[in-house]
Amino acid sequence: MNDEELREQYELFVLGAADREAAGELEARLARGDAETVRRVAEARELVAGFALMAAEVEPPKRLKSRIMAAVRRDEPGIPSWTWAWATATVLAILMAVNFWQREEKKTRELAEVREQLIQSDSKLGTLSPLLDFLNEPQLKITSFGEALPQPPRGRILVSPQRGVLLVVQNLTPAPAGRTYQMWVVPKTGAPTSAGLFQTEADGGAIHLNPQTVNLGATAAIAVSNEPAGGSTAPTTTPFIVAPVAE
Amino acid sequence: MIPFLPILFAALESEDLPDLIDRLKRRDEKALEEVYRRYGRLVFSVILRVVRDSATAEDLTQEAFLRVWNRVQAFDTERGKFGPWMLAVARNRAIDYIRSVEGRASHTTFELNTSEQPGLYVSMEEDILNSDRGRKLREAFDQLNPNQRSVIELAYFEGLTQSEMAAKLDQPLGTVKTWTRSALTVLRGAIGAETAI
Fold first, then answer.
1. Do A49 and B45 touch (CB under 8 A)?
2. A124, containing H or E segment
3. Considering the entire predicted model, what is its pTM?
């Protein structure tokens, strides 16, 4: 490509709009320091700077200045954005650790309380061993109920995907003659399924274990209702205990 | 009212530009606010003309100012021409954007990025946005015939090569080259540059 062919290419080159061959030729000339090319490209750069004046004047939105200044502050090298990211991540990690620790501590405390209740109720059960095995399950979900109620019953429901559902209840008046308590596994969709019948002791305490496996992902809650002796295929009264199962 | 006059007035307020650039280098946010006051409207206008979407133009204007803020350390305070550099950065952001949106692969991306180097803006006689030559150049645009103006606008606002212009305008490449050459002759003459012919 000769000088004549390049004559309309300097400005286009500066604009990044030169044809491939012309751009290659000019880059080669600049690379070897060709004085004439350097001078003409510099002149072209000066001229195309003025091409901006072809643009019709438009007032930018008022908010744009604030946006830019806010972005600059976020981008300030003295406090790099990644520093904020790390700081945020660290704080979140600490909060999550504290939350996890609190939840674990609560779980440990609740398990200890349940163990104590079980030991105290040992005489009421044929064997303690299956229940203690249940409490050793690593994937236990524990839900309390009745804590906010001025009246009993209160207690906890423990759910293990492998070992089923364990209900520990206190202050539940024994069901009258001809009636019984029935536990239900309430799925997220569909009808509740029976999780066994139980009756409380005279002191209002009861421990009921239903050893059927539980699909935690599909379970919404564990419920207890008052049913006719012998149980029902579906709740016939409104459950007085409904403990949500959080996956 | 003369078109572009407010833009020129804004750009003309440059008596203390070296001081302003020094303050930018010291990370003085007030200095950036002043730069925005002087160039924000022109930068936004150019970018909007390229991308033709106000929200996108806002994003790209922000990007351009951030880029200048982060690269101003390399700018030659005494000899550099700030306005042309700022405009080059702004236009490149917009051209890069429309090329990416249109899926236009370009061999000129390197050239665009290279053209942002602050060191390239020291050999100019004066800031064309900040001189009487800017006014003369604007008058020269009005002297161009529609075809001449069209090819200059396609090159500047769309980053098209002459081959791409020929395809877009459905004209022979030779015709586009003739229009480009004659337009540049007029514009070069307006600012007193050699015609390169």
1. no
2. none
3. 0.57
